[in-house]
Amino acid sequence: MRPVTNIRRDWKFKVSQLYPVLLAGGAGTRLWPLSRKTYPKQFSNLIGDTSLFQASAQRLTSSDIVEFTQHITLTNSDFRFIIEEQLQDIGIDPGPILIEPEAKNTAAAILAASIFAHSKEENSILLVAPSDHVIPDTGDFHEAIKVGLTHAQNRKLVTFGIKPTHPETGYGYLELLVASSSGTVPLKRFVEKLAADNALSNFASIGRYVLTLDIFDILRIQPAGVGGGIQLADAINTQAANNTVEAVILNGLCFDCGSVSGYLAAIMNLADR
After folding, report:
1. For residue range 192-205, what is the model confidence (pLDDT) as tens digits?
2. At 174, is the secondary structure helix, strand, or coil?
């Protein structure tokens, strides 16, 4: 089986409604003291002149490659007004802000966004992304989204990954059905954070493992299938077992600033650009 390569760069992909969903309710405890409970990392100007959240929102606005509708943001009541202010400061309509009554998990947040979007547009597609990543090349990112959308419209869940450069224990892995370093490949399973010896073993099989970016294209999640008591990894692996999940491998750099190591890696790599 050959991985699917990119589609024509001169073709702009448009669906009825593509909702960018930003997950912005995290406390950011792994990056203390730069990140604090009352003002977590995603709202701080850790890199550049905008916050990580603002940069994430700008990255999920329409371009010549892909067209988005209004943002949906998931957060808690403590950060609602910070989100409104930061989006208005960069000229983005805040759009719907869904307030989580209590912290659950990513699956519950995606379910809430899915129900909301489905109430607006039955065939809407969600592009779900965290708000603490740094992706320097928005064009490459939008090209990857465009590829993912072709699968999402065929009622598949799409997850995005990036090639690892070293063994990593702080992030989850995507195990691909076949080895590949680019394009789109059916997903075999999602693997949670690994112990050091397993991470080293996976790195030796680097062609078959990529680091997950926790970014997803979702047509719709059925309310009966995912809820507060089910982990996202379980939901992904259930669908992967039915051959309904595709992994898109992002060409370029991506940094998860949720940890000190990820934050330092972003600073060092961007300083060289």
Report:
1. 766 655 555 655 55
2. strand
Measure the CA–CA gap between 95 and 86, rounded to whole angstroms: 12
Give the three-state DSSP class for 155.
coil
Run of H or E including 161: strand 157-162
Beta-sheet strands, E only, within 76-137? 97-99, 125-130, 133-134
Residue 234 is classified by DSSP as H
Distance, CA of 43 to CA of 83 (rounded, Å) = 8
**Cα 126 from chain centroid?**
11
Query: How far apart (Å, rounded) are the C-alpha atoms in residues 189 and 114?
Result: 22
**How far is Cα 111 from Cα 93, in angstroms, rounded to an integer?**
23
pLDDT reading at 81 higher than 90: yes
Q: How far apart are the first and last CA of the chain?
A: 36
How far apart (Å, rounded) are the C-alpha atoms in residues 96 and 150? 26
